[in-house]
Write a structure and sequence with these properties.
231 residues; alpha/beta; Rossmann fold; Arc Repressor Mutant, subunit A; 10 helices; 7 strands
Length: 231
Protein backbone atom coordinates (compact mmCIF):
# COMPACT_ATOMS: atom_id res chain seq x y z
CA UNK A 1 0.00 0.00 0.00
CA UNK A 2 1.40 3.39 -0.98
CA UNK A 3 1.63 5.91 1.84
CA UNK A 4 0.78 9.55 1.36
CA UNK A 5 3.26 11.20 3.70
CA UNK A 6 5.44 13.96 2.34
CA UNK A 7 9.09 14.54 3.10
CA UNK A 8 11.08 17.74 2.73
CA UNK A 9 14.83 18.29 2.26
CA UNK A 10 16.80 18.67 5.49
CA UNK A 11 18.22 22.17 5.85
CA UNK A 12 20.75 21.30 8.55
CA UNK A 13 18.78 23.07 11.24
CA UNK A 14 19.20 22.18 14.88
CA UNK A 15 15.93 20.34 15.53
CA UNK A 16 14.32 18.07 12.94
CA UNK A 17 10.58 17.51 13.26
CA UNK A 18 8.06 15.04 11.87
CA UNK A 19 4.47 16.29 11.85
CA UNK A 20 1.58 13.81 11.81
CA UNK A 21 -2.05 14.94 11.68
CA UNK A 22 -4.89 13.76 9.47
CA UNK A 23 -5.95 17.33 8.60
CA UNK A 24 -3.76 18.88 5.91
CA UNK A 25 -4.80 22.43 6.81
CA UNK A 26 -3.69 21.85 10.40
CA UNK A 27 -0.37 20.43 9.23
CA UNK A 28 0.20 23.36 6.89
CA UNK A 29 -0.51 25.86 9.64
CA UNK A 30 1.79 24.19 12.14
CA UNK A 31 4.54 23.71 9.57
CA UNK A 32 4.40 27.38 8.63
CA UNK A 33 4.56 28.39 12.31
CA UNK A 34 7.52 26.11 13.09
CA UNK A 35 9.61 26.88 10.03
CA UNK A 36 9.44 30.59 10.79
CA UNK A 37 12.01 29.64 13.46
CA UNK A 38 15.58 29.38 12.17
CA UNK A 39 16.46 26.28 14.21
CA UNK A 40 13.35 24.17 13.44
CA UNK A 41 12.93 22.05 10.32
CA UNK A 42 9.85 19.97 9.46
CA UNK A 43 11.41 17.12 7.48
CA UNK A 44 8.34 14.89 7.02
CA UNK A 45 4.56 14.84 7.31
CA UNK A 46 2.03 12.05 7.73
CA UNK A 47 -1.69 11.58 8.30
CA UNK A 48 -2.00 8.56 10.63
CA UNK A 49 -0.15 6.44 13.18
CA UNK A 50 1.14 3.91 10.65
CA UNK A 51 2.74 6.67 8.63
CA UNK A 52 4.26 8.08 11.84
CA UNK A 53 6.02 4.75 12.44
CA UNK A 54 7.32 4.66 8.85
CA UNK A 55 8.51 8.27 8.99
CA UNK A 56 10.43 7.75 12.23
CA UNK A 57 12.01 4.59 10.83
CA UNK A 58 13.07 6.32 7.59
CA UNK A 59 13.97 9.86 8.67
CA UNK A 60 14.82 9.53 12.39
CA UNK A 61 13.57 13.01 13.42
CA UNK A 62 14.44 14.58 16.77
CA UNK A 63 10.82 15.40 17.57
CA UNK A 64 7.53 13.79 16.55
CA UNK A 65 4.49 16.06 16.84
CA UNK A 66 1.42 13.85 16.57
CA UNK A 67 -2.34 14.22 16.84
CA UNK A 68 -4.37 11.91 19.10
CA UNK A 69 -7.38 11.02 16.97
CA UNK A 70 -6.50 9.78 13.48
CA UNK A 71 -7.65 7.00 11.14
CA UNK A 72 -5.97 3.57 10.91
CA UNK A 73 -3.86 4.09 14.06
CA UNK A 74 -4.22 6.84 16.66
CA UNK A 75 -1.34 8.93 17.95
CA UNK A 76 -1.18 7.36 21.41
CA UNK A 77 -0.81 3.85 19.99
CA UNK A 78 1.90 5.09 17.59
CA UNK A 79 3.86 6.66 20.45
CA UNK A 80 3.55 3.44 22.44
CA UNK A 81 4.85 1.32 19.56
CA UNK A 82 7.80 3.67 19.03
CA UNK A 83 8.73 3.34 22.70
CA UNK A 84 8.49 -0.45 22.48
CA UNK A 85 10.88 -0.32 19.53
CA UNK A 86 13.30 1.77 21.63
CA UNK A 87 13.18 4.63 19.15
CA UNK A 88 14.91 7.74 20.49
CA UNK A 89 12.46 10.18 18.92
CA UNK A 90 10.70 12.34 21.51
CA UNK A 91 6.96 12.65 20.96
CA UNK A 92 4.74 15.64 21.68
CA UNK A 93 1.05 14.82 21.52
CA UNK A 94 -1.05 17.62 20.07
CA UNK A 95 -4.80 17.52 20.58
CA UNK A 96 -8.02 19.51 20.67
CA UNK A 97 -8.98 17.60 23.80
CA UNK A 98 -7.96 18.26 27.42
CA UNK A 99 -9.48 14.91 28.39
CA UNK A 100 -7.80 13.39 31.45
CA UNK A 101 -7.98 9.99 29.77
CA UNK A 102 -6.09 11.15 26.67
CA UNK A 103 -3.47 13.00 28.73
CA UNK A 104 -2.72 10.11 31.08
CA UNK A 105 -2.71 7.54 28.26
CA UNK A 106 -0.24 9.70 26.32
CA UNK A 107 2.11 9.94 29.30
CA UNK A 108 1.86 6.20 29.93
CA UNK A 109 2.64 5.55 26.26
CA UNK A 110 5.86 7.54 26.61
CA UNK A 111 5.03 11.01 25.29
CA UNK A 112 7.38 13.79 26.40
CA UNK A 113 4.72 16.46 26.12
CA UNK A 114 1.03 17.14 25.61
CA UNK A 115 -0.21 20.39 24.06
CA UNK A 116 -3.64 21.65 23.09
CA UNK A 117 -4.14 22.91 19.55
CA UNK A 118 -5.03 26.37 20.82
CA UNK A 119 -1.57 26.73 22.42
CA UNK A 120 0.06 30.01 21.41
CA UNK A 121 3.23 30.10 19.32
CA UNK A 122 5.53 31.12 22.18
CA UNK A 123 4.54 28.15 24.33
CA UNK A 124 4.61 25.77 21.35
CA UNK A 125 8.21 26.72 20.53
CA UNK A 126 9.18 26.55 24.21
CA UNK A 127 7.71 23.04 24.46
CA UNK A 128 9.71 21.82 21.46
CA UNK A 129 12.99 23.16 22.83
CA UNK A 130 12.27 21.77 26.31
CA UNK A 131 11.49 18.30 24.96
CA UNK A 132 14.50 18.39 22.64
CA UNK A 133 16.68 18.93 25.72
CA UNK A 134 15.24 15.75 27.24
CA UNK A 135 12.72 17.25 29.65
CA UNK A 136 8.95 16.76 29.80
CA UNK A 137 6.64 19.65 28.95
CA UNK A 138 3.00 20.11 29.88
CA UNK A 139 1.12 23.39 29.90
CA UNK A 140 -0.29 24.69 33.18
CA UNK A 141 -3.80 23.29 32.68
CA UNK A 142 -2.45 19.90 31.64
CA UNK A 143 -0.05 19.83 34.62
CA UNK A 144 -2.95 20.48 37.00
CA UNK A 145 -4.77 17.43 35.63
CA UNK A 146 -1.64 15.29 36.07
CA UNK A 147 -1.07 16.51 39.63
CA UNK A 148 -4.72 15.95 40.51
CA UNK A 149 -4.46 12.38 39.26
CA UNK A 150 -1.32 11.75 41.31
CA UNK A 151 -3.00 13.01 44.47
CA UNK A 152 -6.18 11.05 43.81
CA UNK A 153 -4.20 7.87 43.28
CA UNK A 154 -2.46 8.43 46.61
CA UNK A 155 -5.79 8.60 48.43
CA UNK A 156 -6.79 5.22 46.95
CA UNK A 157 -3.65 3.45 48.12
CA UNK A 158 -3.60 1.50 51.42
CA UNK A 159 -1.68 3.16 54.23
CA UNK A 160 1.89 1.82 54.38
CA UNK A 161 3.16 0.20 57.54
CA UNK A 162 6.58 1.84 57.29
CA UNK A 163 7.65 4.93 59.20
CA UNK A 164 6.77 8.17 57.43
CA UNK A 165 9.78 9.71 55.74
CA UNK A 166 11.05 13.00 57.11
CA UNK A 167 11.50 16.09 54.99
CA UNK A 168 15.08 15.78 53.64
CA UNK A 169 14.94 19.10 51.82
CA UNK A 170 14.92 21.54 54.72
CA UNK A 171 11.84 23.40 53.55
CA UNK A 172 10.71 26.33 55.69
CA UNK A 173 7.15 26.53 57.05
CA UNK A 174 6.35 29.16 54.43
CA UNK A 175 7.73 26.98 51.61
CA UNK A 176 5.69 24.00 52.84
CA UNK A 177 2.58 26.18 52.96
CA UNK A 178 3.18 27.38 49.41
CA UNK A 179 3.91 23.82 48.29
CA UNK A 180 0.49 22.75 49.54
CA UNK A 181 -1.22 25.53 47.63
CA UNK A 182 0.78 24.77 44.45
CA UNK A 183 -0.18 21.09 44.62
CA UNK A 184 -3.84 22.03 45.02
CA UNK A 185 -3.62 23.76 41.64
CA UNK A 186 -3.52 27.39 42.74
CA UNK A 187 -1.61 29.96 40.69
CA UNK A 188 1.04 32.32 42.10
CA UNK A 189 -1.49 35.16 41.96
CA UNK A 190 -4.08 33.18 43.92
CA UNK A 191 -1.50 32.16 46.53
CA UNK A 192 -0.36 35.77 46.93
CA UNK A 193 -3.93 36.81 47.76
CA UNK A 194 -4.40 33.96 50.25
CA UNK A 195 -1.10 34.61 52.05
CA UNK A 196 -1.26 38.40 51.68
CA UNK A 197 2.15 38.52 50.03
CA UNK A 198 3.21 40.03 46.73
CA UNK A 199 3.19 37.79 43.67
CA UNK A 200 6.96 38.34 43.38
CA UNK A 201 7.45 37.04 46.95
CA UNK A 202 5.44 33.91 46.18
CA UNK A 203 7.42 33.36 42.98
CA UNK A 204 10.67 33.62 44.96
CA UNK A 205 9.52 31.10 47.58
CA UNK A 206 8.28 28.76 44.87
CA UNK A 207 11.59 29.00 43.01
CA UNK A 208 13.51 28.26 46.24
CA UNK A 209 11.44 25.21 47.19
CA UNK A 210 11.75 23.74 43.69
CA UNK A 211 15.50 24.33 43.82
CA UNK A 212 15.77 22.63 47.23
CA UNK A 213 13.74 19.66 45.99
CA UNK A 214 15.75 19.56 42.73
CA UNK A 215 12.71 19.51 40.45
CA UNK A 216 12.11 21.34 37.19
CA UNK A 217 8.36 21.21 36.68
CA UNK A 218 5.05 20.70 38.42
CA UNK A 219 4.82 17.00 37.66
CA UNK A 220 8.24 16.29 39.24
CA UNK A 221 7.29 18.46 42.22
CA UNK A 222 4.07 16.51 42.82
CA UNK A 223 5.84 13.16 42.44
CA UNK A 224 8.60 14.04 44.91
CA UNK A 225 6.13 15.59 47.37
CA UNK A 226 4.14 12.36 47.26
CA UNK A 227 7.27 10.24 47.71
CA UNK A 228 8.27 12.08 50.91
CA UNK A 229 4.72 12.67 52.19
CA UNK A 230 5.04 16.44 51.94
CA UNK A 231 1.56 17.04 50.55
Amino acid sequence: MDRTYTNFPVLNKTITIALVDDHMLVRNGIKSLLEAESDLDVIAEGSNGFEALEIVEKYNPDILIIDVRMPEMNGIEAVKQLQNKNKKVKAIVLSMHDSEEYILQSIKAGAYGYLLKDTDKKEFIKAIHTVYEGEKYFSGDISNIIVSNLLQNKSLEPEPEVVVKKDPFGLTKKEKLILGHVLSGKTNSEISVLLKNSKRTIETHRFNLMKKMNVKNLMELASKAKEFNLN
